[in-house]
Structure formats: structure tokens, C-alpha cells
Amino acid sequence: MMKFAGYTHLMLSAQQKVHISVSCRLPGTPPGDQFLARRRKSGGRYGKINLAPRVKTFAWRLIRRALATGARASKFSKHIAKECSRCGMLETDSHLLFHCPFAKAVWFSSSVGLKTDAFDTKLYPSNIIQSILQNSQSKMSIDKIFTTLWCIWKARNDYRFNGKNWSVLQVHHAANALLSCSIEDQTTACSVAFFHAGPKAYVQAKPISRQETTPSPGTTVKDTSNIPGPIIFTDAAWLPGRDGQLVSAGLGIFIQFGEDRPCSQVYVSAVSPLVSSAIQAEAFGLLFATKAAEVLQIKRATFLTDNAVLAKVVASQDLLNDPGHWTIRPQLAEIAATSSFDATRTFHISRSLNFKAHHQAKLALKLQGRSLYSRCLNSASGVCLNSDVTSVCTEPECRVLFVKCC
Predict the structure, then answer these.
(1) How many angstroms separate the CA atoms of 68 and 92, rounded?
(2) Distance in angstroms (rounded) separating the CA atoms of residues 252 and 270
(3) At what angle do helices 32-41 and 53-63 cross, to 10 degrees?
(4) Distance between CA 200 and CA 184 in Å, rounded?
(5) How far apart are CA 403 and CA 386, in angstroms?
(6) Mean pLDDT of 174-185
(7) Which helix (H) or strand (E) holds 63?
């Protein structure tokens, strides 16, 4: 519906709308259909596209020029600034995703070291993506490109509307987590298990029959009821400090022994040393869990984390060829050296299955600055693990804040 002087309303047919939308495009930039047509003509040269649903929606909006950037959204409301919230330049699609200093840092620190200064600022993102894919020296897949673009878009929205400042590393961690998960788990991946940005999403767990083979270490387990022996769930809660200031993270573990022991469950909340990223917080959470298992003399424990990247790196047991991010290498070395740790029994689970450890991690953030609180619901049996758990300390700055055994 469009309004003109002298007319109240003018209804346009679908064919007229298409004609107007195409004619209003900037000169020298092909419409989104041409980008898709070029890919079809390539005969699947770029491989099968395997994107998370939210990234597919973002890619469709980007190609159709329907993203609510500052330059576009400010035409419909005077309350929306057309300038980029980071650098103050006009926020077009190309500026936001490729030419903003933050976007430049993301692409340059990627695996291919892409310098976006080489692209004309007047080019639309679809043209830039086409150039990247056609470059024989670039090994970036179309999945990797669109997932990284979506994470840049997500970081922009958090900075503009929520005042949360992502680091460049967080963008890469989020993109890698989305790409590393299977199709069934992609709807839960960016609560990325490792950072504050996205809303929680849940997925129905498909039961695993007992006849199925044991999953490979570091892969996703969708049902924990069939795991034999003690199970230790671990998680971390972390919010970045202002202006890049280092802050402590909340650590949470939930230990499930089984019904054959007097004390069948233990809940623990603690705070970590100062950390710089969510992946480092998750690494401290897993290290704290292995130390707890060592103190409690738990043998053949299965460690579960909702961080897919961490689970994969730890299970690989190859710090030289697959060391993970450089900030967590000291924690990975300590984890591997712990007597209670078994890399073949480390797996990834969804956030919906890790809610108890997640609750303990969030509780630790609320209890910072308070003294230790312990509670034993198993005093009648004469077995209490609180004193043992409180002795767990991965670093001098790490403190146990809450313990409950039952």
C-alpha cells in the first residue's frame, strides 16, 4: 500500500511490486535473484548449503535487501539513527558487514585473513560474497561466510540495543559453534553454549537405543539416561566487563552418582579467576569438574558440557594440532593432567539437558562476595561430601560458594 497526493490508497499488483522493487535498486548491483541464479549456474560448485534456520532467514533478508540497517530503517522512522553505532558512518549493508572497523577486524582475523579494504564500499554484500567465492585462494565456504555475517549482525544488534560489546573472538566462537553442530542441534547452538548473546532455544531429544554404538568422544549426546557410571555436568556463566575489563565467571557442576550410593547427587557453585572470554570460562568450568572428581575419587566419570567447541577440542587430545583457542591452552593442559579425566568419556549435550549445572553457574554469579554456604540432605546416612568438595580449588582465586549433597 502506497500513499500519493490526491489519492487515499493505491493498491499494487504483485507484478507491479516486483517491477518497482527491481527498478529501485542501486545501479550496478544485481538483484538477489541474480546471486541465486549464479550459484545455480555454477552446478553446485560451492557445495550443498547447510545453514542453521536463523542464518537461512538472515541470508534471505540480506540477498533481498530487507535487513533493517540504519540507512534503510531510518527512512521509516525519525527515531532510528542512520549512523553506525560503532563508528558513526552511514550504516549501509556493506558498511555494517564488511567495512565497519569491527567487521574488518572479524574478517581479517578469520582463517583466511580477508582484507575487506580491497572491496569497493559501493558494492552490495552479494557482490562481495560472489567475489570471495570466486577467489581460488580463498577457502571459505558459503556456509562459513553467511554464518559469520549472521554473527556480525547479532553482535551489532546486541551493541546497538542492549549495550553489550562483543569481542572479535566471540564472533568466531559463535560461528564455529553453529558450523560444528549437526543439523538437529543447530537450533540450540548459539545460545552457543558459551556466551551471553542469544536467547535460549530447545530441541526435542531423540532417544538413543541401547543397541546403538557408543558415540565418538566430543560428539553430541542426545540422551543421558543410557550413560553408565557417574556423570558430571559442567557449565559456566559469564558476562563481559565494561571496556574489556576482565571479570570472574560463575562455575556450576552437577554430579550424578547413581542410586547405589548413599549420596547420589552433588550440586556445586563456584567463581573462577578473571577470564577474558566465554570459552575460557567454560574451560575453567570443565577444569573445576575434573578437580572435583579427583578429590571425590570418582573413577570412570563421564563429563558433559554444552559447549560443542570445548568438547571437541578436549576429546581430540592433540594440543599441538588442535589446541583450541590460545587463551584456554593452560586449562586444557591441566585437564589432561588430571587423574580423574578420561577424554574418551567427554561429550557435548544441549543446554536443555544441562539446566542443573547452568542453574548452579548462574547462582554463583549472584553469590559473589558472600561466604560459603553448604547444605547436606544426607546426614542420616553419615555420608557427607561437602567438606571434600569445598577443598576443590583450580586456582588461588577460585572459590567454592555453594555445595549441596543429597
Answers:
(1) 10
(2) 7
(3) 110
(4) 15
(5) 6
(6) 68
(7) helix 53-63
What is the model's pLDDT at position 38?
52
How far is residue 401's CA from residue 270's CA, in Å, rounded to a whole number?
A: 5
| CATH 3.30.420.10 at 231-405, yes or no | yes
CA-based nearest residue to 269, from 283, 287, 255, 252: 252
Of the candidates 255, 247, 206, 261, the one whose C-alpha atom is nearest the C-alpha of residue 369 is 247
Cell of 21: 522493487
Mean pLDDT of 336-346: 86
Q: Reduced to 3 states, what is the DSSP secondary structure of residue 401?
A: strand
The HSE-up count of residue 367 (CA atoms within 13 Å, CB side) is 24
Round to whole Å and give the CA distance between 252 and 198.
20
Instruction: For helices 278-295 and 329-337, give the axis angle rounded to 10 degrees.
Output: 20
List Cβ neighbours of 247 (8 Å cut-off, separation of 6 or more): 238, 239, 240, 241, 274, 275
346, burial (CB in 10 Å: exposed 0-12, middle 13-18, buried 19+): buried
Give the start-to-end residue ranges of the domains of the chain. 31-185, 231-405
In this predicted model, which residue has the larger pLDDT, 148 or 141?
Answer: 148
C-beta of residue 395 within 8 angstroms of C-beta of residue 271: no
In this structure, are strands 399-405 and 346-348 parallel, antiparallel, or unpaired? unpaired
Phi–psi pair at 344, nearest 5 degrees: -75, -5
φ/ψ region of 328 (left if φ > 0, alpha if ψ in -120 to 50, else beta) reads alpha
Burial of 359 (0-12, 13-18, 19+ CB in 10 A): middle
Rg, Å, the chain Cα set: 25
Quote the pTM value: 0.48
Band (pLDDT 50/70/90 cuts) for residue 306 is very high
- What percentage of the chain carries pLDDT values higher than 90? 29
* Sole residue written with cell 567463581: 271
